[in-house]
Amino acid sequence: MTQSQDNSSIAALQRVLQGLRSHRYVALGAVLSLILLTIATAVTPQIFRWGIDQGIAAKNSTVVWESAALMVVAALARGLFNFGQTFWSESTSQGVAYDLRNQLFIKLETLSFSYHDRAQTSQLLTRATSDIEQIRSFIGTSLIQVIGAVITLVTISTILLIMNWQLALMTLAVLPIAAWILTRFFTRNGSVFQRVQEQLGDLNAVLQENLIGVRAVKAFVRESQEATRYTALNNELIAVSMKTLYAIRNTFPIIFLLSNLITVVVIGYGGAQVIRQQFSIGELVAFNSYLLFILQPILLIGFAAPAIAQAAASAQRVYEVLDAEVEIRDRPNAIPFRTCGGRITFENVSFRYPGATVEALKNVSFETKPNELIAILGMTGSGKSTIVNLLPRFYDPTEGAVRIDGHDVREFNLMSLRSHIGIVFQETTLFSGTLRENIAYAKPDATLAEIIEAAKTAQIHDFISELPEGYDTVVGERGVGLSGGQRQRIAIARTLLTNYHILILDDSTSAVDAKTATQIQTALDDLMEQKTCTAFVIAQRITTVRNADRILLMDQGLLVAQGTHEELMRNSPLYSAILESQVKPT
Ligand SMILES: Nc1ncnc2c1ncn2[C@@H]1O[C@H](COP(=O)(O)OP(=O)(O)OP(=O)(O)O)[C@@H](O)[C@H]1O
Q1: How would residue 321 be classed by pLDDT, with cut points 50, 70 and 90?
Q2: Ligand 1 atom index nearest CA of 117
Q3: Is any ligand 1 atom within 6 A of the Cβ of residue 536?
Q4: Exposed (0-12), middle (13-18) or buried (19+): which is 562, by Cβ within 10 Å?
Q5: Same domain, 270 and 394
Q6: Is the CB of residue 357 below 6 angstroms from any atom belonging to ligand 1?
Q7: Is residue 254 part of a domain?
Q8: Pfam families from the xrefs (predicted)?
Q9: 3-class SS at 552?
């Protein structure tokens, strides 16, 4: 691990600690309990010393009984404060994890398409679950252990120095050595702990892919190969986890050894002092008891060290997402998008996807007129979806500008812009819930009448009303239980229910039979006249192309021709070729 990586994981941990501010009262409760616990612990050997020297040695049974009673009180107090400390530190940790989970989710929702294009879903899931859990357990357990250890060390060292400074100095000499060993453990092994989390993310990736793609896996009879792939990654996870164990194994026995050596020193040197009557037996017993209390914190810090290293690595991974730049955001003086006159202008637009080597759009220029239905046609990969992606600012052009009624789309408030653009995507995403909830996704307060109207337009109402539960039918995860065409029509109904001015249909009737597609198209034509200023349809069917007021013909990112069906038939050999090869005849 490089120095800078080390620093940033420690900086990430510091930020986690700053997050404690919003839970300061609960955290304070934990620290207060801890201080009281330390006092109760520190007092116990003194009760011992008093009981032995003034009770047993002085043959005073009252003192013996009193000291025994006091020890019971001290034990009860220790139990109580221990409970308070654990309860409040756990509560604090839950609060911190709650905040981080929410922050991460909100950030993931705000991050631009370009971020999600590059990020691995499973790694993001691991960050939102396992990494946050590591941080939670650090706050709930390791942090309070370390604070407790430091407070105990300072308190007990002071008491030991007061009791017998020579013996105390000999004993305390072990502390810097232990501190050095632990620091070395941290700096050497930080990256190993980070690798464990990455490996877990990779393992989750395969799991996730296989769960989502279970049908493909079975259809291609790849179960055993997928199991082998999973096992290989699982082996790697074990290997890297074992590395952390080796690191722990190489460090902690030395600390244990050191702690045992101190006992030898105390019994040897302290015993000699007792013989010379420079130290009472009670004091030696008390000193030895303190020794346990002083070694315990060192060991606790030792045990907490791997968890802290792990939490630091996890915190770094979580903050990496929280700090990721949101590329597409509102400008400071963003204006709301209210109405649309229908003049959409692409002005010398070039666009390259982040990380791509070639441009997906090259110097594309066109302008629509109000109420036009624009069909975009082209071979696969020619840039059709990319054109429509630039309108709601899923991406911003690399060069040039996209304007609506003369305003650059970047001038608009993003939420108002997107809420007035209705899109039916190429791939349909449904959410688990009822059909009604799915159709009303963007307008949860829609009435049943509105929902039915949208469903009728999308030619899905008859199907839904024949279901036993009708609109209250629960659809499975990602719409399992529905055919591709049914899913697509629900997606169309969902879009129709939004308050759109601009409508974009990206291949949205591709999974519907030709007759239904024509019915949908006719209903859409009516709606377009009522609600829409401009509609874009990525065309796969000759009927769509024929109905369009204008066709934009794309080829390898270039807008090579535009015009009506008849014009293009006359002028563009590519158009005729595409229609013949790609568009399914009706
Ligand atoms: N998220 C992305 N990241 C990088 N490159 C992309 C991304 N999406 C598309 N591309 C590339 O940009 C080019 C244009 O893609 P686009 O999706 O616009 O094509 P299309 O004409 O809609 O294709 P299809 O008809 O197959 O849907 C393609 O070469 C594609 O590989």
Answers
A1: very high
A2: 1
A3: no
A4: middle
A5: no
A6: no
A7: yes
A8: ABC_membrane, ABC_tran
A9: strand
SS3 state at 21: helix
Pairing, β 399-404 against β 372-378: unpaired
44 with 145, same domain: the answer is yes
Task: Output the pLDDT for position 511.
Answer: 63
Which tokens sit at 315?
């915190």
CATH number for 45: 1.20.1560.10
Residue type, 282: G
- pLDDT of amino acid 426: 77
**For residue 586, is it within any domain?**
no
- pLDDT tens digits along 123-145: 888 899 889 999 999 999 899 88
Q: Determine if ligand 1 sits within 6 Å of the CB of residue 508.
A: no
Gap from CA of 557 to ligand 1 centroid (Å):
9
Task: Show the tokens assigned to 180.
Answer: 């050095």
CB atoms within 10 A of CB 552: 26
- Tokens linked to 124: 């993001």
Total domains in the fold of the chain:
2
Report, as an integer, the average pLDDT of 315-339. 90
Say yes or no: CB of residue 352 within 6 Å of ligand 1.
no
- Ligand 1 centroid – CA 381 distance (Å): 5
Q: Which residue's CA is the nearest one to ligand 1's atom 23?
A: 381
Q: Is the CB of 427 under 6 A from ligand 1?
A: no
Per-residue pLDDT at 485? 80
pTM metric for this prediction: 0.78
300 and 369 co-located in one domain: no
390 confidence band (pLDDT: 50, 70, 90) = very high
- ipTM of the assembly? 0.96
* Residue of 143, 113, 136, 120 whose CA lies nearest to 392: 113
Do residues 364 and 350 touch, judged by C-beta distance below 8 A?
Answer: yes
Atom of ligand 1 nearest to the CA of 382: 21
217 and 354 belong to one structural domain: no
Asked if residue 547 belongs to a domain, the reply is yes
What are the tokens at 72?
A: 């019971």
DSSP 432-454: SEEHHHHHTTT-TT--HHHHHHH
pLDDT at 287: 85
Distance 583 CA to ligand 1 centre (A): 19
Q: Which of 261-275, 431-445, 477-491 has the lowest mean pLDDT?
A: 477-491
Residue 360 Cα to ligand 1 midpoint, Å, equals 7
Q: Is the CB of 556 under 6 A from ligand 1?
A: no
CB 167 within 8 A of CB 255: no
Q: Check if 395 has its Cβ closer than 6 Å to any atom of ligand 1.
A: no
Q: Which of 120, 353, 507, 544 to mutate to test the pocket of ligand 1 (most atoms within 8 A of CB)?
A: 353
Report the C-alpha gap between 390 and 10 in whole angstroms.
Answer: 40
Q: DSSP letters of 65-99?
A: HHHHHHHHHHHHHHHHHHHHHHHHHHHHHHHHHHH
Alpha carbon of 556 to ligand 1 centroid (Å)? 10
